[in-house]
Design brief:
Layout lengths: L2 E2 L3 E5 L3 E6 L2 E11 L2 E10 L2 E10 L4 E9 L4 E7 L18 E3 L7 H27 L3 H33 L2 H4 L1 H15 L2 H7 L7 H19 L3 H4 L2 H25 L5 H7 L3 H26 L4 E2 L7 E2 L2 H36 L1
Parallel strand pairs: 1-6, 2-9
Antiparallel strand pairs: 2-3, 3-8, 4-5, 5-6, 7-8, 10-11
Bound molecules: ligand L7CU2Q4V.
């Protein structure tokens, strides 16, 4: 029986040659490559009905001996690997194209399109590798982000409650609301500020990429005011200064925590970022000033009550009032203000350069 030639369609990439042989229900496939010659034989249903079909092609350049092929009900797909990765001007050595051969326009790309495809594949590979290595590097990333998101959410809700409560009371009661701020707000403030200890632990555990020291200054500074100055002196609790301290603290936090929440889900809301890194400029000195006023007002109360005073040996018959360590603390406060002000300025500058990079 005579051997017929099937229709063959071809396309190439820098490293591969693709052939599509129009032969349905192909059986007894015999495909081999020797250096530059490809031989194909099979039985199947082609343009001239059921028959033996075959062809031989002398290729333009050598290919690797391994051939991969896959036959479907309608056709046979063959892939060859070029020995050298470069673009061929044509498929066959002879310039005149055989009649049975035509370009496969479903897969056809010209050289520059193929290069772009190659680049896209490489980029995809690189990004896949970098995602995989990130996951491999930190298998607990999701858990960490989940914890931070919940922490920030709880703080945001706590400080929002404080801020809204104080604002509503200010509108309804006016200046009278100043004097019982502590009794209405203190429990929630205790809760939020105790929880804020996590902000010192988080960088220690490497959960957030920030310094431990600025967070420690912030948390210790506020907790001294809340637990020692206000918490342990009843006489301080109905002073107007409590209102100012709590209001200034909560004003920054209703922006700071949502900013962190968004960063946990890799999202940025530019206006919120700007507010988070700007509003502290007036609030931080005002907050420190209000805290300093509270410390100064508490000194005579500590002197009178003798609370936390340090007794010296009996022979001296003296005790040191807690107002002395508080004087030292006043100095530390302004030192702390300076350190954190500088830290926040750096964070703000980093934000500006990040914005420039993005543009
Ligand atoms: C050690 C001895 C102590 C002695 C005590 C001495 C007393 C000192 C007293 C000092 C005076 C204090 C006065 C103060 O209490 C008054 C007030 O607060 S008034 C109100 C105004 N206050 C503020 O504006 C300050 C608010 N607080 C803060 O900003 C922070 O607490 C501070 C530590 C100062 C700065 O925060 P941080 O270092 O974390 O900077 P960033 O916000 O830029 O964050 C850096 C990156 O880490 C990521 N991050 C941080 N925290 C979280 C989180 N919880 N969840 C998720 N991600 C977080 C953040 O996204 C940044 O990442 P990236 O760089 O990728 O953007």
């Amino acid at each position: 029986m005579q051997t017929l030639t099937p229709h063959v369609y071809w396309a190439q990439r820098h490293g591969e040659i693709y052939l599509r042989v129009e032969l349905s229900d192909a059986k007894n496939l015999d495909i081999c490559v020797q250096d530059k010659t490809l031989q194909f034989k099979a039985r199947g249903h082609g343009a001239k009905g059921d028959n033996d079909y075959g062809f031989s092609l002398e290729l333009l350049e050598p290919v690797k001996p391994e051939v991969t092929h896959r036959s479907t009900q309608r056709l046979v797909n063959i892939s060859l690997r070029k020995r050298e990765e470069r673009w061929w001007d044509r498929l066959t050595l002879q310039e005149k194209k055989p009649l049975f051969l035509a370009p496969d326009f479903d897969r056809w790309l010209d050289e520059s399109d193929a290069e772009m495809e190659l680049h896209a594949q490489e980029e995809e590979k690189i990004s896949r590798v970098s995602i995989e290595s990130k996951i491999r590097k930190d298998p607990y990333l999701g858990l960490k982000k989940g914890y931070l998101f919940m922490y920030n959410l709880v703080q945001f809700l706590g400080f929002s409650w404080i801020f809204v409560n104080m604002t509503v009371r200010l509108f309804i009661l006016g200046q009278d609301s100043f004097y019982d701020t502590f009794h209405t707000i203190a429990d929630m403030m205790y809760f939020c500020q105790m929880l804020a200890v996590a902000e010192v632990i988080n960088p220690l555990l490497g959960l957030v990429k920030t310094g431990v020291f600025p967070a420690m200054i912030q948390v210790v500074g506020r907790n001294v005011i809340l637990f020692v100055v206000f918490g342990s002196l009843q006489d301080m609790q109905n002073k107007a200064v409590v209102f100012f301290v709590f209001y200034l603290w909560s004003t920054i936090e209703i922006f700071r925590y949502p900013f962190y929440m968004l960063s946990c889900i890799d999202t940025e809301w530019k206006l919120l970022t700007w507010v988070r890194y700007t509003i502290w400029i007036p609030l931080y000195p005002l907050g420190t000033l209000a805290e300093a006023v509270a410390v100064i007002q508490s000194m005579p109360v500590f002197d009178e009550t003798g609370l936390y005073s340090i007794s010296l040996p009996q022979a001296l018959g003296l005790s040191i009032s807690f107002s002395y360590p508080l004087k030292l603390y006043l100095v530390l406060m302004f030192l702390g203000l300076f350190i954190n002000f500088r830290h926040l300025f750096r964070q703000r500058r980093r934000l500006r350069s990040r914005k420039r990079k993005m543009n």
